[in-house]
Amino acid sequence: LTLHMFIMLRALCVGLLCSVAYGAVIKGGIEVPTYTEPCRRNSPDFNVCIKKALQGIVPKLAKGGIPELELDSIDPLKVPEMIMSYDAEHIGGRVTLLNTITRGISKLKVLEVRSKTDDPNFFLMDIDFFIPKMLTTGLYRMQGHIGDIPVLGEDTYNITMAGVTGTWRLVGAPVVQDGQTFMRINRFEVKPEVEALKVHANNLFKGNKELSTVTLAFVNRFWRVLYEEMLPYTEETFDKVVRNLLNKIFLKIPYDQLFPLA
Q1: Does the pLDDT value for residue 251 go beyond 90?
Q2: Per-residue pLDDT tens over the stretch 183-227
Q3: Displacement of CA 59 from its chain's centroid (Å)
Q4: 193-203 burial string, b = 16+ CB within 10 Å, else e?
Q5: What residue stretch is flagged as signal peptide (predicted)?
Q6: Residue 229: DSSP 8-state
Q7: Which of 115, 234, 133, 124 is closest to 186 using CA atoms?
Q8: What is the DSSP string of 121-135?
Q9: Position 159 pLDDT exceeds 90
Q10: pTM
Q11: For the segment 81-130, what is each residue's pLDDT rounded down to a tens digit?
Q12: Do residues 130 and 104 make contact, with C-beta atoms less than 8 angstroms apart?
């Protein structure tokens, strides 16, 4: 889930800029493609404008991505490799996911946007989202433990998630570079909630089908406990990685051009 949230957020962050950075040219001379009129940050309809811009960019990202910014389609979302390490009470070890394909992100709904942009020294934006269902398939390689059971295996896997909700929170402050004001994102927060989740993996124990069946039954029964244990590890990574990503974007377009005044 955390992998999908990160990549989806990356796509939407770039998509947001493509939606609202009207006529912007980022450092390096690349013009940002635009799809809507700019959202004026001192307008009473600013939040509605951002919500509309984000929701409007989802089909475009799903259909073919944004070639100008080397952004691929998000549905299906393809990831060649992802490596994760955990050391929680009930789950730990190292997991490598290969050739992952996720479907369903194009059904994302932007529920609400809340922001604070009236203070020139502070920036806050909350974006509530909902995804009805996501299906992920791919290959896995795992060495670790689930509960007291050591796990060592590699083969195909699939994960089905339903009712994914959450809020992306962006907190920032202005910085001046070369006489222009940019908005630096200092903190990023997200804690996705999942209504239902089901996992299947082949060959968890090098062909021991009975042990695999028992372990998968345990995971699918207590997935919520395992998920909550993994969140602290993923939240820290999310904050660092996504902040760096956001600032690569936010620090390329002046604040008054990104979110101009009316």
Answers
A1: no
A2: 999 998 888 899 999 999 999 888 788 888 988 999 999 999 988
A3: 16
A4: ebeebebebbb
A5: 1-23
A6: H
A7: 124
A8: T-EEEEEEEEEEEEE
A9: yes
A10: 0.81
A11: 888 787 877 778 888 989 989 899 889 899 999 999 988 899 999 999 99
A12: no
User: What is the distance between the alpha carbons of residues 2 and 23, in angstroms, rounded to a whole number?
Assistant: 33
Compute and round to an integer the Cα radius of gyration of the chain. 20
H or E, element range at 206: none
Report helix, strand or coil for 184. strand
The two tokens of residue 113 are 């946007």
In a 3-state reduction of DSSP, which class is residue 160?
strand
Single-letter code of the amino acid located at 39: C
Neighbours of 116 (CB within 10 A): 11
SS3 214: helix
Look up residue 187 and give its two tokens. Answer: 């903190």
Domains of the chain: 2-258 (3.15.10.30)
Looking at 104-231, which runs of residues are DSSP E strands? 109-116, 123-146, 149-177, 180-189, 193-201
Look-up: residue for tokens 């590890």?
233
- Given a cut of 60, whether residue 27 has pLDDT beyond it is no
d(CA 95, CA 1): 13
Helices (H), 39-100: 46-63
- CB atoms under 10 Å from CB of 51, counted, come to 20
User: How do 91-103 and 109-116 pair as beta strands?
Assistant: unpaired
- For tokens 């600013």, the residue is 46
| Calpha distance 104→90 (Å, rounded) | 29
